[in-house]
Design a protein that fits this description.
The protein is of the alpha+beta class. The protein is 15% helix and 35% strand. Strands 3, 4, 6, 7 and 8 form a 5-stranded antiparallel β-sheet that branches. Strands 5-2-1-9 form a 4-stranded antiparallel β-sheet, with no helix packed on it.
Length: 185
């Protein structure tokens, strides 16, 4: 009788221990939803500078494709298209261009042919309960003028629909008119 009671106790102990271990494993394995701040964050990834043709006029041109990674914790990145094309001047991708002059980089001022415009990242929305947005954005700039071998770089940042601005990222330097690819060191 004692032998049978010990066997039953041992069996009951296994019935209790196995579910407890399984529950502990599930708690450790299941992480809560990822959380990021509401301010977007960006990270420069690469520049590709290459020959192309102007889409509208068919002239030879240079293209500069800037790639960057982004995260937005509250998922409110991007703008709806303007109601009337060309009327809504607001943007959410901002750039400052710097040109090397006399050995030092200076900010390109408005009125300069290379002065960058504001750009619009299209409306983005995450599906499901977690609203975090992450991804890579590629922006292609077309240069019709590249007579001088200017050395340039961009600082850029984004703003979400809530008005939160990201950090500022900086591209590699590049020489206008020369094909090249650059990634951060």
């Amino acid at each position: 009788m004692i032998f049978v009671a010990k066997a039953i106790c041992k069996e009951m102990k296994n019935q209790v221990i196995i579910p407890v271990i399984a529950a502990l494993l599930m708690m450790v394995a299941c992480e809560g939803p990822e959380s990021l701040p509401p301010e977007p964050r960006i990270e420069f990834r690469s520049i590709n500078h290459y020959d192309t043709t102007d889409f509208y006029l068919g002239f030879p041109a240079k293209a500069l494709k800037i790639s960057f990674y982004f995260e937005d914790g509250d998922g409110d990145l991007g703008l709806d298209p303007p109601q009337t094309p060309g009327v809504d001047p607001s943007g959410n991708l901002f750039m400052k261009l710097y040109r090397k002059t006399n050995g030092a980089f200076t900010l390109v001022e408005p009125g300069d042919i290379l002065f960058p415009s504001e750009y619009r990242i299209p409306y983005l929305e995450a599906g499901g309960q977690n609203k975090i947005l992450k991804g890579t954005i590629n922006v292609t700039l077309i240069y019709l003028t590249f007579d001088t071998p200017d050395t340039l770089y961009y600082d850029f940042w984004i703003k979400d629909r809530g008005g939160n601005e990201s950090n500022t990222a900086t591209t590699c330097t590049f020489i206008l008119g020369e094909n090249s690819t650059c990634t951060p060191e």
